[in-house]
Amino acid sequence: MVPEIESNTVRKDIADRGYRVIGNTPVIDDTAAAFEDSVETIIRNTEMEITLKYLLDEMERENNVNMMIRTS
Question: Highest taxon of the source (predicted)?
């Protein structure tokens, strides 16, 4: 069984980002959104890496069992 990893979204509303909305340029909002996108991509990639490592370990174990059966 492949492990499942629960991940929460890191996206925040503009009002929840911890800075004043009035008086800031849209560049700050765009930068914060791009950072949040990057963090979510990193999380998804990490989930994929863990899944692939698990599958590789399973394949190696199965291969070892098959090799033992063939040599006996």
Answer: Archaea
Reading the block at residue 59, the tokens are: 């394949």
Tell me the CA distances in angstroms from 4 to 21, 27, 48, 55, 57, one per residue in order: 37, 36, 10, 13, 16
| Cβ contact 14:29 at 8 Å | yes
| Stretch 47-62: mean pLDDT | 93
Rounded CA-CA distance 29/65 in Å is 54
Is the Cβ–Cβ distance between 10 and 40 less than 8 Å?
yes
CB-based burial label for 57 (10 Å; 0-12, 13-18, 19+): exposed
The per-residue DSSP string of 4-56 comes to P---------GGGSSS-STT--HHHHHHHHHHHHHHHHHHHHHHHHHHHHHHH
Cut 0.85: pTM above it: no
